[in-house]
Design goal:
Elements lengths: L39 H37 L1 H15 L3 H12 L3 H25 L5 H8 L4 H37 L11 H7 L9 H28 L1 H6 L1
Helix pairs in contact: 1-2, 1-4, 1-6, 1-8, 2-4, 3-4, 4-6, 5-6, 6-7, 6-8, 7-8
């Protein structure tokens, strides 16, 4: 739906037709129209693109910085490990949504700042997951053999550690992707995410509050979009874990 919305939607998602406002679902407007006469299905399609762009970028930021930090902590240990973990503890001391609200409040509400805010919280998550998964591998025989062959920590991490923990990182990425979708919707709901006229599922939920009793479809369909997306991403994560985890493959 997000990809298709790049080149086709049933109606222009931002075109207002006041005479058609607050219509229920029909053949012309599958999910009805909002208080400005905009087609809700078209807005959900456009909102899918915006929500997934924010979530994908936030996860990319988290992995791009968190995985190297976690791998460095596992490889070097000592004060470096302690320093990285204390930074993670400091980040976890603040709830994710509160961190995002602080960042967007300082730099201004926008989809770009929402990406940065959510991505900042993802960094310590991936750092801890990477460190925890990598720590047990540094005592394996093939790592000791690589050391005897003259490989340094960076080469061992790239050739042996990361390939053996990629299933853990992929599953964690799908989980964080789902959480990022919810976080983006929450920021947009309070006006700190995507700004009008940009479509956002969270903003659609916020705008529906006034009409919740007279036109409940304004809230039902964006809410279902968020629910289905998050549920699908979690099921994807479970499936990837069963497919990629070597312990599960051995049991099969």
């Amino acid at each position: 739906m997000a990809v298709v919305s790049e080149f086709w939607t049933p109606w222009p998602p931002y075109a207002m037709r006041i005479r058609d406002k607050l219509q229920g679902p029909s053949l012309a407007h599958w999910f009805g129209t909002d208080n400005f006469g905009r087609d809700i299905f078209s807005m959900i399609m456009a909102g899918a693109r915006n929500s997934l762009e924010v979530a994908l970028t936030a996860v990319a930021v988290g992995m791009g910085l968190g995985v190297p930090l976690g791998a460095l902590a596992a490889a070097r240990g000592g004060w470096i490990d302690g320093f990285v973990m204390r930074l993670s503890d400091l980040a976890f001391a603040f709830p994710a949504l509160l961190t995002a609200v602080i960042v967007t409040a300082i730099f201004g509400p926008s989809a770009t700042n929402a990406m940065i805010a959510i991505g900042i919280f993802n960094i310590p998550v991936f750092a801890r997951v990477t460190r925890g998964a990598a720590m047990g591998l540094w005592k394996r025989d093939y790592v000791l053999a690589a050391r005897c062959a003259g490989l340094g920590d960076a080469a061992i991490t790239w050739r042996h550690i990361l390939p053996n923990i990629n299933h853990v990182l992929i599953v964690q990425a799908t989980i964080q992707f789902a959480l990022a979708v919810v976080a983006e919707a929450g920021l947009s709901y309070v006006g700190l995410g995507a700004q009008p006229p940009q479509a956002s599922w969270g903003k659609m939920l916020s705008d529906s509050q006034t009409y919740i009793y007279g036109a409940p479809h304004l809230a039902i369909f964006p809410g279902l979009a968020i629910t289905i997306t998050v549920l699908g991403l979690n099921l994807l994560g479970d499936g990837l874990r069963d497919l990629l985890d070597p312990r599960v493959r051995r049991r099969r």
